[in-house]
Design brief:
By secondary structure, the protein is mostly helical. Helix content is about 60%, strand content about 0%.
Length: about 100
């Protein structure tokens, strides 16, 4: 997947923060939709602007998820280190 044109991040931390910011923005748009305010905003800003912003946020989210999955190991499973004998959290390991 190509990097979205409006994703202006450089570091991994910035990219992850952008993901969290987009989640908040999408939640706010959902709240505006549920209370009926989005219709008024569409009349002021134009429907194409709202559609473009929402589409860009969703594209960014998908790009970041794919990047994280590939580079940083999302969906690789959970490792329970407490089952290993050398783990200091292991309750059965009585020293």
């Amino acid at each position: 997947m190509e990097r979205p044109e409006m994703l202006y991040t450089i570091t991994v931390g910035q990219t992850r923060q952008k993901y969290r910011d987009n989640i908040k923005a999408l939640d706010n748009i959902l709240s505006l939709t549920m209370c009926g305010s989005l219709e008024e905003i569409k009349e002021i800003a134009g429907e194409w602007v709202i559609n473009r912003v929402m589409a860009e946020m969703i594209i960014q989210q998908e790009y970041i998820r794919e990047r994280e999955k590939t580079n940083w190991g999302w969906d690789r499973g959970v490792v329970d280190f407490s089952k290993q004998g050398s783990c200091i959290l292991n309750c059965n390991n009585n020293a």
